Amino acid sequence: MASKHLIALLGGDGIGPEVVAQGERVLEFYREKRGLDLDLWSLDLGADRYLKDKTTYPKPIADRIAAEASAVLLGALGDPRVPGLEHARDILFGLRFGLDLYANVRPVKALADRLVPLKGRTAKDVDFTVFRENTEGIYVGMGGQFKRGTPDEIAINEDVNTRKGVERLIRAGFEFAKARGKKTVHMADKSNAMKHAHELWYRCFFEVAKEYPGIDAKHVYVDALCFYLVQDPSPFEVVVTCNLFGDIVTDLGAALQGGLGMAGSANVHASGGPGRVAMFEPVHGSAPPLAGKDLANPMACFLTVGMMLTHLGYPEEEARMEKLVSHAIAEGKCTQDVGGQLGTRAVGDFVLNELSHAF
Ligand code: NAD
Ligand code: IPM
Ligand code: MN
Description:
With about 350 residues, the chain is of the alpha/beta class. It is built from 11 helices and 12 strands. It folds into 2 domains: about 1-100 and about 270-359, Isopropylmalate Dehydrogenase (3-Layer(aba) Sandwich), CATH 3.40.718; about 110-270, Isopropylmalate Dehydrogenase (3-Layer(aba) Sandwich).
């Protein structure tokens, strides 16, 4: 009998496999103890594999994920032994672009006052969600180098923005705001400098906004957004932005949450639909200096698994994961980066133990 949900697990590089191993324990718990019909499929991809046989992201695997999987849990990709990051781009963009996962949804929510680094601010001031365009922009790899290595060399990366791509991401942000009862959506661009590409964002944003009369649509330049987020993040609820700015703003956001070890994310084709696969990954990278030392914070991965559980149809389990992570942080049962003394696995033990008593 076919399993209801095929979940691909791709630990990747550095701390990726260590945090995904903890996320996998949570999924195993739901399979063994809560009867979720999950078929967990571990993929041996990443820098080790690439260095062994040059494999990056094989088509049969990509095809099976597209045809059969409900979700992918990705750790991180990036290894100093592959300085060009060929494997990382093939896998990460193979998933994001190949599956047309156009919305990278990155919640920026602080789960404890002590994690907020801003003077005079508490966790209630940090609670917004970034919708990062995930299939276009500067990430498409169009461009090239000319006269490389000479004094006249030229390097170009084209910034691709299509009406379809911009509009669907903006609409996903408004739909999310509407569904969650949010009052404001901000759109961050550089339309003052990028007069072609971001004039499209600006125009499209206010056109789409007309369909959501109950929601206040506000434009902010991305440089000013960075300033406001540090000065006072509390007015922000939903931020829609392009691929590159979303990447940068969500690392800043992660700092407001207590660090990259606390930030989860989902890569979705926002119109969903039955059988539509999505990819889930912590915002952080492979953190090579931490790898293999049991130092990586697995909370981002737990929150990411929570987002996956919503995608699989169990939103109450996402809320439960968030509560468990908050509880672990409150109890100091966490890694050093968030003020604790435990290792990655011991944090997993604590969270799994709490989870087993949560029903
Ligand atoms: P990084 O996110 O790996 O690390 C930035 C800082 O955050 C470091 O100080 C690191 O120690 C800390 N950190 C990150 N995750 C942590 C965790 N779970 N627990 C505790 N501390 C954590 O960013 P970087 O150093 O710029 O990148 C390293 C590699 O990862 C690069 O090759 C980069 O391209 C790649 N990367 C991959 C992804 C991805 O696959 N989704 C995301 C970001 C970066
Ligand atoms: C992220 C990462 C990636 C990105 C890198 C590794 C290409 O920083 O997922 O945030 O820029 O999207
Ligand atoms: Mn990033």
